[in-house]
Amino acid sequence: MRTRLFCCRSINQSVKQVIVHMNEYCGMPASAIALCIPSPRPHFEGQHVHVATVNRVLWNQSVRGHVEDTPRSNYKRKMMHEHWLIVKKILGERPYLLLDEVASEIELECGARYHVRTIGREIRRHKWSRKEMIRAARQRNNYRRMLYRQEIEDLMVTPEQLCFADEVGQDGRWSRRRSGWGPIGESVIITEYLNRGKHHSILALYGIEGFLAFDFKEGGYDADSFIAAVESTIVPHLNRYDVNDPLPNSIFVLDNCPSHWTQIVELRRLIEDVAGAKLVFLAPYSPIDNPIEQGFNCFKAAWRRHSSWLDSAPLETRIRWCLTNCYTEGAVGARNTYRQCGYL
Question: pTM of this prediction?
């Protein structure tokens, strides 16, 4: 009759000592010792233990100094649906937690212990994944956003009237691509100078057709340089606001940067008296309502993609080329940013 082999943890202390004695004093290998140990289970009469059981006993003796097996963990192998709802609530409130932290939170919440692999498997089963978080400012005020939206609705007849201006910083790190190809399990290392380079600020005007104009300077914009750039670069592209004859670029929108408010009287004079347009400020901490933020993301991506030949061109040429060619479909991309911000 063929002997059935199985791994067993239920052999008693005396049998484990016999295994150690046969190995140490008789020099018998584990396969021979297994044939000498009958099964401790009554319904498997005439059979013997698996060689893995003998190897485990011998390993415990040699490594740990005793023959006792480590106790089994009391982790639950499958997650109950009620416990998944707890995980969902925890991750909904604090999505930045790591799996071991989630396991601790579950144990505090309901007393159940789950291994991190079980939690990760359950998260993937419910079509969840770990992704980059979008951070929204706690200082954002929905009531002030509503007031801004109401002001825009009262002024705007067509979305072509809206134009936006903002600044973005540029230094030597812009041209660095963040990812590269390499063998699996190995780091990708490139050698380069890790200096930031000169910092330049770019002030751009953005409309529904894309970027309209720009100004740049070394360093950042203060109140005086911002007013000078508005007068020379932005005002010539603005049109007079008229409800009965809505002209494009007749509503000028700015964010709440301190340099925009320092000389607010002079700024209003340039925008409303000289150009005849309407000046509107975004609600604080609300870049989600500013299409030029997405336009600058495309601008930076174009700069990185074509940095191999752009770095040899003059700075003004690089800025002009990237602002003009940052969208693959021209004005369609700019109109999509207006649509995503809710103006179309």
Answer: 0.66
